[in-house]
Amino acid sequence: MRKKLLVGNWKMNGRRVMANELCAAIVNEMQNLKNIDVALCPPFILLDEARKMTAGSECMLGAQDLDMHDDGAYTGQVSAGMLKDAGCEWVIIGHSERRTLFGETNLTVGKKTKQALNRGLKPIVCVGETEDERKTGQETSIVQEQLQSVIDEIGIDSCKDITIAYEPVWAIGTGLTATPEEAQGMHSFIRKQLRSQHDETAKACRILYGGSMKQNNASSLLGCPDIDGGLIGGASLNADEFLGICRSA
Ligand code: PGA
């Protein structure tokens, strides 16, 4: 049985006061959230605040990106070693906003995933098609290509150590959600792709859904056999919404 994983992606939101309040509310509820994993991914600059607030609790910490290199002359970047030092266990890689707004490619996503694994971070690798790609029936080929380029970079054996997040771009921050059937269809397609290369990896790998997951649609999505949790953006900025999603898992 794969344990459900709920990840809050705060994106570029928050101040220290907000981080304090949100973490406090979530930590306070953690003892009632048995049998699920919860991780919060605040902006880099709020990681330390979040680390202090979640210390000693079951709530884990992650970052939203990392650089593919070790420490060095890369102005503005943040390394895996820094993230570990800041208390991170997880790191989101290849979010669609990174791909579309900051020019990340399948190649850089693969390299970042490898770097995270090599430095002991758990990567959450995002894949997903745009609205146009779905309208023209290319969704599975796009996702297959995104996933395969990561597999090619890290090797199929290492895929048991990554988490995949299927996030249809048209559902991110739009209020549109994939139906449970659409989401389950893609999750099962992703698992099949893993299974065709390594059966054990396919069984172990958690595949999260992301894209306007809310309290009111979470249980139908999280009830699907191949949906192992959620990557939650907007709703993770509100403790009641986020905890509501966690409870339905
Ligand atoms: P959303 O974002 O929940 O606000 O749609 C999800 C994500 O981008 O990870």
Overall description:
There is one protein chain. 44% of the residues are buried. This protein is 44% helix and 15% strand. It has one domain (4-57, 80-248): TIM Barrel, CATH 3.20.20. The chain is globular. The chain has an 8-stranded parallel beta barrel with strand order 1-2-3-4-5-6-7-8, surrounded by 6 helices. The mean pLDDT is 97. It is α/β, with parallel strands linked by helices. The two termini are 14 Å apart. The structure holds 2-phosphoglycolic acid. Residues 9, 167, 172-173, 210-213, 231-235 line the site of 2-phosphoglycolic acid.
The number of distinct β-strands equals: 8
The CATH architecture is Alpha-Beta Barrel
For the biggest β-sheet, the strand order reads 1-2-3-4-5-6-7-8
Instruction: Give the strand content.
Output: 15-25%
Which cofactors or ions or other ligands sit in this model?
2-phosphoglycolic acid
Note the overall shape: globular
Domain count, please report it. Answer: 1
Characterize the main sheet: 8 strands, parallel, barrel
Enter the CATH topology name.
TIM Barrel
Give the helix level as a range of percent. 40-55%
Q: What is the overall pLDDT average?
A: 97
Regions with pLDDT < 50 over 5+ consecutive residues? none
The helix tally amounts to 11
C-alpha Rg (nearest Å): 17 Å
| Helix vs. strand class | alpha/beta
* Gap from first CA to last CA: 14 Å
Series of secondary-structure elements, N-terminal to C-terminal: EHEHEHEHHEHHEHHEHEH
In CATH, what is the homologous superfamily? Aldolase class I
What's the CATH C level? Alpha Beta
